[in-house]
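Check out a protein:
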Amino acid sequence: MMDARAEIREFLVSRRARLTPADVDLPTYGRRRVPGLRREEVAVLAGISVPYYARLERGDMSKASPGVLEALARALRLDEAERAHLFDLARARARAAPAAGDATTVRPVIRHLVDAVTGAAAFVGNDRLDVLAANSLGRVLCPGIVASGNLARFALLDAEARTFFRDWDSAAASVVADLRAATGRHPRDRRLTGLIGELASRSEEFRVRWADHDVTLYRSGVKRIHHPLVGDLELNYEQLDLPADPRMIIFTFSAAPETPAAEALAFLASWSSVQSRQS
C-alpha cells in the first residue's frame, strides 16, 4: 500500500526543486543550499503561511481545502496531470481510499468491439498498464507487448523494447509517469504496488525515473516504433475511456490513409490473416 504522507512530501519537494525564483518572478537573495524554491517562497506564492506550507510538505493534507490545493498547484506551476495527481494524493491522505477493483475482466461486448476494428491495431488496457485484449492487427503489430501482458514490464524488462520503441527513453519515461499517476488514484491497489516493487527490484532505469515523481496524462499523440517485418512506423495513438469500466481504456494505433504506414498496416493485417488460416 502506498505511504500517502511520503508520496505527498516527495512530490512537493520534487516540484519545488525544479523551479527557480526567476521562473516565478521572485527576486534571488542569499546563498541557496538546495536547488529550487525555498519553502517560504512557495508559501508566499500560494498565499499561505510558512508553517502551514511546511505542514503540507510533511504530508499532512488531511484538511487541505480545494482552494488551498489550487493555490499550491498554481504556485508550483503544475500542469494538468500534476494537478490531478496532487488532488489524488490529498484525497488518499484525507480518508482511506476504497479498495481497488479487479480491473482485469473485459466484458464480452468490449472484446467484440475491439475485434471489430479493422485497419487499426486496437487493445484493451487498464491503469496498471496490463494489456487485457487485442485485435488481430494489434497482436501482430505489438507481439512483444501482448506476450508480456503488461506494457511496463515489456518496456523496462524486455531487451526487445529498446529496438521496438524508436525513442526508448521517452517511452520508458511515459510508462513510469503513467504508473506514478495510477498510484495516486489507487493507493490501495496491491497488484499495482506489487508491479512497482517488481520493476524497482529489477530495473535501475525504473528506479531512476520513479524518483523523479513525474506524472502524465497521455491520451493521444504519435508513436514511433520499429517492426521486424515492415521496419520503421510512425503511428497515431488514441486513447478512448470506457465510462462503464472506469479503470479500463481502449487504445489504438492507426495511420493516415495512403501513407507508407497505412500500407505497412495493411500488409501486416493480410499477413496475419494468412498465418491464421495456416495455423
